[in-house]
Here is the input.
Amino acid sequence: MNVHPTSSTYTDPKDLLTEQTRVFDVCASCRRCFNLCPSFPTLFDYIDEEADFEAKGLTKEHIHTVTDLCFSCQLCWNHCPYTPPHEWEIDFPGLMTRAKVVQKTRRGWKSRLLANIELIGKVGSLSRSLTNWANTNPITRRILQMFVGIDRRAILPVITKETFTNWFSKRPTLEDTSKKVSLFYTCVGNYFASEIAKDTVKVLNHNDIGVEIPDQVCCGMPYLDLGDLDTVKRKATKNIKSLLKDAQKGNSIIVPNPSCSLMIKQEYPKLFNDEDSRIVSANTYDICEFLTSLRKNKELKTDFSGNINGKSITYHVPCHLRSQNIGFPAKELLELIPETTVNSIEQCSGHNGNWGVLKAYFEKSMHVGKKLFREIDDSQSDIVVSDCSLAGDHIKAATKRSTVHPVTVLCDAYNLDKES
Here is the structure.
């Protein structure tokens, strides 16, 4: 059965193998998740063709391959009919994380470097123009592929002209308001997609909500994918300590990145199983989830007068947003804009952080996103929207279409000054 990360048996290879065999047999008898990610069809092929139809016949190499093909989209958790509270307690994504912790196959210096988004952002910002040039130059990209393993065809995030924290420090504080929130702006939102964090502040301020910035570090998601629980716990501990203070004084914690909100909402309580992590989790909201709650309370302004009115929108629903079981709040908000048509697509982009840009997995990653890319091409919409900027990089690589975050669309619809 499920073993908590704090259990003494969590890193026991024999106990892990017993659980893998049990779960893999259940999955092979069900096969409901056969088309979600490369892990499942690979697992089923191994069981059918090389293990005599039983998981106990799988080799260590088979299991390692299945684990390495899991890119933590989390969709199988919602798709599976046997997750807790069912008596079988199947937790495939949790099992994959546990296997990565035990196997330690993803913890080389290259993987750890790519996981350190804060360091990459800080160093890249020191020479922004040079970094952005190098990330698009064919020669330097071949060098990156050769020595770091990043596929030269993958689109890499662009370092922004000004970090979000620097921009926010110069922005006047909204004092005349009784309602305030705390913004977990994320590493990506600080260094690579600062317009998303900026537009989040603008939209909240427009709705008479003050924004505070608590102390924060990386949510830890990139390290969770490596199975590096020690680093995840160190970062999570710092964030929980900081965010708990804000939650206890009544602030909602707003997160514009679905991977980071998923981490705080779901993974922190799993890691610690304590009251502090549960309080932080209960008070954390995706930005569009929060704005939708304002609408339900008739507190959301709908004075849309910008250039979005009458546009057709294709909206990609990211996996880590679907995994939160909060519906499609961004779609609800976009449909409030006068005369817009919104077509949502529930398909995986295949990116998922580092996994999708590595040469070893890039082709598989793009294959996973093939349905999404085809539907976007067929839509011929005016605007392509996604809550996940990294998914947007894959979408652009495949379709040549740029994406924007839902909150940026709202910012334009409100006709808020882009430079304010």
